[in-house]
Amino acid sequence: MNETKPDFWESLSPAQAAIVTVLVPSLYLLALVVAWFSPKHFGFGIRPLVYAGFTVGLSGVVLWIVAMIHLGKSLAVLPGGERLVTHGVYKVLRHPVYLGIDMTLFGLFLAVGSTVGMIYFFVVVLPLNIIRSRFEEKALLQKFGDPYKTYRQQTWF
After folding, report:
1. Cα(39)–Cα(116) distance, rounded to whole angstroms?
2. Is residue 58 part of a domain?
3. Rounded to two decimals, what is the model's pTM?
4. Among 3, 93, 123, 138, which residue's beta carbon has the most beta carbons within 10 A?
5. Coil, strand, or helix at residue 132?
């Protein structure tokens, strides 16, 4: 018999899934708390970095919102969904929400010149989104198979 082991997300109990559903977004919220309370040196003393950070951050917010709109009812903290979303920004990017989050927080920390924020971004946020995207890829590949393989080959991160 060739049994497949359950997907990581499917193996979570309802209580564990609830914890992950609350914990993951809390780590992004914590990034904002870090930015608010950590010492700031706007643009790290380089005024154009303030504008660059603001531009990157604002672009990230727009990408993040547009991606969530395109996801519609497929939007969830844990991977799942009943259909493969391949329209809008998902025609080019597989994980625009994660990229939008990354751009938003990186831009924010750059603009306010927060060294602690930058460390938090590179140690917590970026690895979290890479790990989440890998789990999501695995879940979507398991659920959708060849159509997802084709989609993955035609898109960037």
Report:
1. 8
2. yes
3. 0.80
4. 93
5. helix
